[in-house]
């Protein structure tokens, strides 16, 4: 049988439950500071949606690729001239990032396929896809996407030696994306065997090294002048010292 409550014992008021924040509503400190203790920047959320500035960047860099494509190239025996197109494409991906860089390169291709003479030698139209250089041409949007992703990974992890990181990202993209698709285009449209296509592609390697050096140097200068365009390095975690 349960014991009766002692009337002499002081009654304790029932504490009212503390108000609980809803799961989706962050606290004031959480809204001002991230999980790593660094203050949140108000412009980070706005990067998820494209605005007029993003569309302007895409249009300007598509025009930059076209301008570099129209500069006179050095013709080679395989029918693919050495031009500054890849320099502009790699630089576009470095500066604009993966999505906007790929969009700028895609806009350049769309303008050329639609009839604007923006391809090498003032050419245009779908017929350029039958040329030996077609593989290099169609690799541009993918190359801008890949180098943008690599630059984002590299610059989010390093604070110094940015030039070396950008150069490695650009050169890696050239050999992972541009050259394999270029070799495939030589084999398909020029009828070359793989060894012959690879030999023809090797002629572009020294120039690609120089072009990626130039792209990295320009990108470093752009990020220094416009820091908001550069991916930010992750803040270092402070380890507690043992007493």
From TrEMBL:
Query: Matching Gene3D superfamilies, A to Z?
Result: 1.10.1760.20
Please indicate which superkingdom the organism of origin belongs to: Bacteria
Compartment(s) where it occurs, according to its Swiss-Prot or TrEMBL record: Cell membrane
Q: Which InterPro entries match?
A: BioY
Record's compositionally biased regions (Pro residues): 1-20
Question: From which residue to which does the signal peptide run?
Answer: none
Q: How does it sit in the membrane?
A: Multi-pass membrane protein
Q: Name one Pfam family in it.
A: BioY
Q: Has the keyword Cell inner membrane been applied to this entry?
A: no
Q: Where is this region: Disordered?
A: 1-44
Q: Where are the transmembrane segments?
A: 55-74, 80-99, 106-130, 136-155, 167-192, 212-230
For this UniProt record, the keywords arranged alphabetically read as follows: Cell membrane, Membrane, Transmembrane, Transmembrane helix, Transport
Annotated Polar residues bias: 24-38
Q: Which PANTHER family match?
A: BIOTIN TRANSPORTER BIOY, BIOTIN TRANSPORTER BIOY-RELATED
Report the family membership: Belongs to the BioY family.
Q: What is this protein called?
A: Biotin transporter BioY
Q: What organism does the UniProt record list as the source?
A: Arthrobacter gandavensis
